[in-house]
């Protein structure tokens, strides 16, 4: 089992940097509140100085979405959507301690983070262009087919675990009460992405280790080292 980005993704987006964490031993009966508070405070301090649309991390994803033929203010990266909600509401709803932690880290770094329940992923997981035949399951249980050439996270069975790259994850592999093993993926495209992603991975791994008493495996991928073996 492995994770990777397809070669044409690296070719089309050479500035991409991806941080990966593989974690086993996750459970709901844990509190990450102290870590979450710290990351959210960092995000709020940054939002007090400027809106999320001015962040270089967000602007880079907007450019990528435009390149993919998507309206960047209609389809937003997950990090931009979270920052907008934090700015408007002052807080985010609690879902699961791991998701809440990853959302807080995403806020602090303005970098989208996806979390997949590995028990729901078949074989490898690859970020690639869609053929249009893949199956995507919404959080409400409806079935969709990604558009041809849309960037998706796809497994060996042709199931799409995220649509429009960092815009919309599937409910099929979402973290839930029975989740024990996860793959966490953070992706950035802005100048200095590799440095920021490396720092994000380090801080998130430390928080996960402290909360769940586990030892995450991690890596930062680029075009010269594009694969992570799970």
Question: Would you write up a description of this structure?
Answer:
The termini are close together. Strands 1, 4, 5, 6, 7, 8, 9 and 12 form an eight-stranded mixed sheet that branches. A four-stranded antiparallel sheet has the order 3-10-2-11. The longest helix has 20 residues. Strand 7 and strand 8 form a beta hairpin. The model has no long low-confidence stretch (mean pLDDT 97). Helices cover 35% and strands 24% of the residues.
In terms of topology, how is this protein built?
Layout: E1 2-5, H1 7-12, E2 17-24, H2 33-49, H3 56-67, H4 78-89, H5 97-109, E3 113-117, E4 125-129, E5 135-137, E6 143-144, E7 151-155, E8 159-163, E9 168-169, E10 181-188, H6 193-212, E11 217-221, E12 227-229
Parallel strand pairs: 1-4, 5-8
Antiparallel strand pairs: 1-12, 2-10, 2-11, 3-10, 4-7, 5-6, 7-8, 8-9
Helix pairs in contact: 2-5, 5-6
Strand content: 15-25%
Supply the helix-strand structural class.
alpha+beta
User: What are the secondary-structure elements, in order, as H or E?
Assistant: EHEHHHHEEEEEEEEHEE
Rg, please?
A: 16 Å
Number of DSSP helical runs: 6
State the total count of DSSP E strands. Answer: 12
Give the overall pLDDT as a whole number: 97
Outline, from the CA principal axes?
A: globular
Uncertain residue segments: none
Summarize the biggest pleated sheet: 8 strands, mixed
End-to-end Cα distance, whole Å, is: 5 Å
Can you give the helix content as a percent range? 25-40%
């Amino acid at each position: 089992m492995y994770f990777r980005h397809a070669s044409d993704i690296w070719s089309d987006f050479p500035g991409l940097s991806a941080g990966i964490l593989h974690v086993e031993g996750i459970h709901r009966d844990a509190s990450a509140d102290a870590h979450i508070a710290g990351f959210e405070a960092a995000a709020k301090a940054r939002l007090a100085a400027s809106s999320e649309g001015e962040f270089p991390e967000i602007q880079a994803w907007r450019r990528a979405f435009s390149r993919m033929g998507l309206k960047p203010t209609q389809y937003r990266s997950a990090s931009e959507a979270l920052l907008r909600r934090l700015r408007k509401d002052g807080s985010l709803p609690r879902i699961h301690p791991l998701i809440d932690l990853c959302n807080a880290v995403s806020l602090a770094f303005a970098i989208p983070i996806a979390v997949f329940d590995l028990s729901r992923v078949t074989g490898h997981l690859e970020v690639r262009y869609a053929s249009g035949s893949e199956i995507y399951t919404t959080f409400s249980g409806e079935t969709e087919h990604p558009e041809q050439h849309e960037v998706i996270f796809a497994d060996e069975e042709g199931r799409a675990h995220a649509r429009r790259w960092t815009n919309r994850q599937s409910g099929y592999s979402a973290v839930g009460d029975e989740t024990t093993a996860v793959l966490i993926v953070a992706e950035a495209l802005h100048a200095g992405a590799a440095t920021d992603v490396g720092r994000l991975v380090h801080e998130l791994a430390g928080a996960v280790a402290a909360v769940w008493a586990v030892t995450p495996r991690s890596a930062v991928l680029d075009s010269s080292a594009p694969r992570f073996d799970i």
